[in-house]
Amino acid sequence: QVQLVESGGGLVQAGGSLRLSCAASGITVGWNRMGWYRLTPGKERELVASMTELGRTTYADSVKDRLVISRNDAKNTVSLQMNDLRPEDTAVYYCNTVPHRNFWGQGTQVTVSA
Hints:
Elements: E1 3-7, E2 10-13, E3 18-25, E4 34-39, E5 46-51, E6 57-59, E7 67-72, E8 77-82, E9 91-97, E10 108-113
Parallel strand pairs: 2-10
Antiparallel strand pairs: 1-3, 3-8, 4-5, 4-9, 5-6, 7-8, 9-10
């Protein structure tokens, strides 16, 4: 049974930083392309960052140069360092494989105030 537990969200002012973490069980993050997605009411779920098994990273244009995805194989976790946050980054953030599979965690809320 796969479990993904996201944490690290919160309320931050524009320009601030947060670090999200995703603890995985039942799946080895280093053996999968992993990604961070975000969901905002009224919008489609958006893939904002991903990392392949070999460590190659890709980012959505809207977050490029501000968000950094990383992975800790020993801890089986995936992280997302979020810098220079903007109000439009407000969303619930989830980790999952890329393409995503049907085992979403509860997500972690990120709220950025102007």
